[in-house]
Amino acid sequence: MQIGQRMAEPKVCVTLEAITVEEMIDEATRANIAGADYVEVRFDKLYLNKPEPVTMVNDDGEEYSKVPPIEEWGVKDFDQIDVEKSIATLKEGIPVPVVFTTRAVREGGFFAGTEEERLQILEQGIKSEVSFVDLELSIESKARGKLVTLASDSGCKVIASIHETKSTPNADEIVAIVKDNSLHGDIVKFCSTVSNHHDALQIFQAANSLVGQDSTHSLMGLGNGGDWVRLHAPVLEQAIVYATMMNHFRLSDRGLINVRDLRDAWALMEY
User: Fold this and answer.
1) Has residue 6 been placed in a domain?
2) 1 in a structural domain
3) 156 in a structural domain
């Protein structure tokens, strides 16, 4: 099936940006109203310590306040978050199905504890009966297998995720990654850092090559052009499209798209 044919609309998942349980519930409620089918709870963000704004001086000598970039924020120790209580509160307060994620630093996340601690959090998330759990393919195979079995027993679908934080493979390699890992989850998620439009085209080309291949996947990039597959997801047979509640100027430079803008774009293009 080629680009241009009308396809079923993919599910839209809003990745929550909040860093406290209360803020996550509020953001999830707003995402639901804005048109999200699911929300992604980034549990690793609960471990972030937001610093106080720093006073800066512009070229005109005027002072202004600026919060340092998130990459420079400190992180909490594992035992500073009550995992069980936090998950229970999120479950009670969030009105839409949840994709539960605890991303390690090595894959672009913010959880800086041990892998054993991270797997404990994922296990508790699965046991709370979330709709989806994101299990990276980089998890040690035996440990990952136990979580997959637990998820299956709990009625929780598995997103098998791959994050290329340094570069984007070529289109054929991306297609191979998706096909080779199709049995490791209900959905294969591939995300890479996009440095230029050539990188973005590799992801788009891979997505187009997978059309009609009986593969359940979600491809995307982070960087300028990384939103191309998100925008054309209905004709590219994407299972889930990740969006955001953020509405910053030039958000597309980061490869992201606001959930309302995404829905509007699909309507405008008659997808």
Assistant:
1) no
2) no
3) yes
Domain count, the chain: 1
What does the pLDDT look like over 113-163, one tens digit per residue? 999 999 999 999 999 999 999 999 999 999 999 999 999 999 999 999 999
Q: Is residue 4 part of a domain?
A: no
Residue 243 near residue 258, CB atoms below 8 Å: yes
Amino acid in the structure at residue 12: V
- For 212-227, give one letter per residue: b (16+ CB within 10 A) or e: eeeebbbbbbbbbbbb
CATH number of the structural domain spanning residue 117:
3.20.20.70
Contact assessment for residue 40 and residue 265, using Cβ atoms and an 8 Å cutoff = no
pLDDT tens digits along 7-60: 578 999 999 999 999 999 999 999 999 999 999 999 999 999 999 998 988 888
Tokens of 205: 């080309």
Tokens at residue 132, please?
């989806």
Dump the DSSP string for 24-81: HHHHHHHHHHHT-SEEEEEGGGGGEEPPPPEEEE-TTS-EEEEPPPGGG-EE--GGGS
Distance of CA 262 to the CA centre of its chain: 15
Tens digit of each residue's pLDDT (9 = 90 or more) over 194-251: 999 999 999 999 999 999 998 999 999 999 999 999 999 999 999 999 999 999 888 9
Range of the domain at 136: 11-268
